[in-house]
Amino acid sequence: MTTMLNKKVDFPVLNTTMRGNDLVYLDNAATTQKPKSVLETMNHFLTKENGTVNRGVYFLSQEATKKCDDSRKSIQLFLNAASEKEIIFVKGTTEAINLVAYSYGELLKAGDEILITELEHHANIVPWQQLCLRRGCILKVAPITDDGHLDLNEFKKLLSSKTKLVSFCHISNSIGTINPAKEMIKLAKEVGAKVMIDGAQAVSHLKVDVQDLDCDFYAFSGHKCFGPTGIGVLYGKEALLEKMPPFMTGGDMIETVSFQSSSFAELPRKFEAGTPAIVEIIGLGEAIKYMNSLDFTEIQEYEQKLLNLAQEKLGELDVRLIGPTHTKAAIVSFVVNGVHAHDVGTILDMEGIAVRVGHHCTQPLMKRYKVSSTIRASFCFYNNMDDVDALVRGLKKVREFLG
Ligand SMILES: Cc1ncc(COP(=O)(O)O)c(C=O)c1O
Predict the structure, then answer these.
(1) 361 in active site
(2) Do 201 and 348 fall into the same domain?
(3) What is the rounded CA–CA span in Å between residue 162 and residue 183?
(4) Count of domains in the chain?
(5) Which of 68, 137, 169, 361 is catalytic?
(6) How far is it, in rounded angstroms, from Cα 267 to Cα 192?
(7) What would you report as the CA-atom Rg of the chain, rounded to the nearest whole angstrom?
(8) Which in 30, 82, 234, 367 has the greatest CB count within 10 A?
(9) What spacing in Å lies between the alpha carbon of 162 and ligand 1's midpoint?
C-alpha cells in the first residue's frame, strides 16, 4: 500500500490496548471512534460553558444557542442543503426515519405504496411496516442479486404511480453495497415518488451532496461519523417539510399555545420538540469540521485498498464472503466455515480485535443469504494494513482453537 493516512494519532481510543494487545477496531459500521477535537470540544463546553439554548438572556445560553446554530450551518454546508431550515436535529438515523414515516405518512392514504430494498437495516423496514398498518399503505421490497447488488430491473418494475415513497440505504451496513442512488432517485422521480436515503453508513465514506442527488430526505447518525451518540440529522426539502405535520409536540416547537389550540414554530424548530441534545449537537459540529479537513477522494481510494487487501487475504482462508466484492464500501461480511460467528468474535476479542458478529439488524438480508449471522469487519480511514494482518492472524487462531 503506497498511502498510509496515519490518522490513528487523532483518535485516543485507537492508541489503547485491549486484553493485552493493541486495540484493532474493526466495528466502524456500528459506531466510529471520536477524534480528540470532538472530545475536547464537548468536555470544554460542559466544564466551562454549559447552558441551555433558545431561552436565556444570559451569556451562557446565548453562547450555547450560537454554537448549536453554527453546527446546523456546518451541516447544511457539509450536505450542500439549500437552507439551514432543511436540517433537523434528531437522535439518530432511526429517529429520522420514524419522523418521516409518521409525519410524511400522515399525507398518505390506503393503497399508497412504499418501496424499500432487501438490503435495509431494520430501522428502514419497521417504521414503514408500522406506517402500513396505521394507514393501509403497501410495503414493496426490491430484491438484490446473488452478488449483493440491487436488481435494478426489478426495482424499475416495482415503481408505479402508486409509489409514494422510496426509501433505501446509500450503503448497506451489513455487506457494504453502494447503491446507485442517483439512478434510483431519477427512476423514482419519474413516477412522482418522494425519496428518502438512509445515509447512516455513507457520510463517513462518501462526499454527500443532497442537491446533486435530488433526494427529498437524507438521514444520518452523529456517532457513525466521528461525533457523539444521541444526535443525528434529518435533511428534508423545505417545501416538503412545510407540508408535513409535526412529529413530536411540546416546548420549543411552538409559536403560541392556549388550552384550545397551538401554532407551530417555523422550520426547523417545528420538528425539534423539547430541549435539544446541546453538547451532542456541538460535538457533531466539531466532527463535521474534522471531516471537512479530510480529502474524501483520498479516503475512498485508501479504504478501497484496505478492502481489496482484506478480501484477498480472507479469500485465502476457509471462509465464505457474503455480498458484493465490488462497488462497495470497506465492509467485509463473512462466515468461517463450520464455526459459529459468535465463537469467532469471542476469539478475536481475546486478541484485542473488535468485529461485529450477528445479523447486523438486517435479518431479512441474512435470510436471503441463508445464514443466521456473519462476522463483519468494517474499516475506516484510520485503519491500516496492520489491522488487516491482525484480523487474518486472529482468524488463523480461530482455526487452531476450533479446528
Ligand atoms: C444503514 C443503517 N441504517 C440505520 C441505522 C440506525 O442508526 P442509529 O442506531 O444510529 O439510529 C444503522 C445503524 O447501524 C445503519 O447502519
Answers:
(1) yes
(2) no
(3) 19
(4) 2
(5) 361
(6) 24
(7) 22
(8) 234
(9) 28
